[in-house]
Amino acid sequence: MAKQYKLTPQRLQELQEELNYLKTVREREVAEQIKEARAFGDLSENSEYDEAKNEQGKLYSRIAEVEEILANYTIIDESVSATGVNLGSQVKVKDRETGEEETYRIVGSQEADPMNGRISEDSPFGRALLGKEVGDEVEVEAPMGTLRYQVLDIQKN
After folding, report:
1. Which residue, of 2, 55, 117, 137, has the fewest CB within 10 Å?
2. Contact (CB, 8 A) for 49 and 32
3. What is the C-alpha to C-alpha distance for residues 33 and 97, in angstroms, rounded to an integer?
């Protein structure tokens, strides 16, 4: 069975738009690059041609990846009424050691961007948060040791 990708409605739309762009605009651009590179002559010593073919390979790889996601996705229901943390929840936590507070959104693996506060449900931190409620303590095993957090707030969007 194929892996199921969990997406928000916004991410689904972004992927559909990306696929459309890749198959129309970008594919034509790469084809034009290959055509121009062929005009330079001997293909065995033509670095422009090699680069264009590499670009074409990357393009087709990304198209296949996006098509795979779009063929096997489920939409995250962000309006779930459960009281605990689940996909789509925005969670405010407090580091028990430093007292620092951070806010994260729990998302599917395709949308994860930890530097911007979007934590994958598949990450150790995301898995530890799932199902927790306000006031609960969370322990996360990290390379530098066990990190402890307290859930301060949960927002459902």
Report:
1. 2
2. no
3. 55
Strands 101-107 and 90-95: antiparallel
Q: What share of the chain is helix, strand, coil (3-state, %, to 5)?
A: 45, 25, 30
Q: Compute φ and ψ for 107, nearest 5 degrees.
A: -130, 170
Reported pTM: 0.65
Note the pLDDT tens digit of each residue in 41-94: 776 677 888 888 899 999 999 999 999 989 988 887 655 555 688 888 889 999
* Residue 76 to residue 4: CA distance in whole angstroms: 11
Pairing of strands 137-142, 90-95: unpaired
CB atoms within 10 A of CB 54: 11
Sign of the alpha-carbon torsion through 66, 15, 88, 128: positive
